[in-house]
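#structure-requests
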Amino acid sequence: MLQESCSSMISLCPPQWLTDEESLLVNPLVSTEERMDWVLSLGRKNSCSGHEGQGGPFAAAVFDADDHRLIAAGVNLVLPAGCSVLHAEIVALIRAEQLLGSHRLDLLAGRHFELVSSTEPCAMCLGAIPWAGIHRLVCGARDEDARAIGFDEGDKPDAWQTKLSQRGIEVVTGVCQQAAIALLQDYRGEHGRLY
């Protein structure tokens, strides 16, 4: 019988350029549009064909919903890590939870958190949002925009936005939508890999 050593901690190694970008963001991004613009810039860097560790056009970040400071960012690492679950939202949530020391961000007394995502969440990421304790979800491109270039977003429930709202999670869609759609279309135009 093969025995494997296990660690109780999942360790993510984000690309160096991502941690560099995080370290440059010292001031809060006050408007929702500023936060989305910053997330979209991460998606552009992650999908650039000349960029090491190309992972596709998806990016997300967890911000403190009250003071708008960045907690942690994530980009899609499915291809570079060879792991189907490492979508941008999941990477951002894992990194934020580990940084703050809580598997549920809503357990941190008096704090509220926002997840800003370049595209509406796929079926998997949608399921992770309430369990992570997110209070507000902000999306750029729509589900159908990702599907239009060939991504499989999975089977999401009808009225998913209403269902999140019923759980106390505010949902804001269409923020910087045209720029978010352009990011997806540019990736497809450069023949980026679909996964």
